Fold Cell division protein ZapA.
Amino acid sequence: MNEDQKNKLTVMIFGQQYKIVGNASSNYMRMIAGHVDDKMRQIAESNPRLDTTKIAVLTAVNIADEYFRLKEEYDELVKLLEE
Amino acid sequence: MNEDQKNKLTVMIFGQQYKIVGNASSNYMRMIAGHVDDKMRQIAESNPRLDTTKIAVLTAVNIADEYFRLKEEYDELVKLLEE
């Protein structure tokens, strides 16, 4: 993919429109937006009293947790490959 | 770590208190909250007109993007190890 070519996209997340810009393909960017939308809906369903800001922050916390867990596994694999 | 032992923690993210619950250590949970707080501040600085909800949603999108990029690299490593 051409790194200089920016894709601009409007996506819907939790009923709101967002303009996102990135080097990735439109499909990838839609997939990311869909992932965040799914997580927000899950968190909203389990915590019906939370406002949208809190739902979004807890979604970010949730995804960051997944990131750091995967990072730990990734680092272990890199170590294995280096041995 | 004992998987049954839940840690409850109050953390500050973007000036708001959040109660988070998890199996991970308090240090890990604070690190995750700090990561989200940092990202929100970065996005808020680059986009001063955004409200807190949009900042939080875009933070979640940003972290999800990092997750899926890492996932791709991780899957490639797994393939390499299987060969």
About this structure: The radius of gyration of chain A is 16 Å.
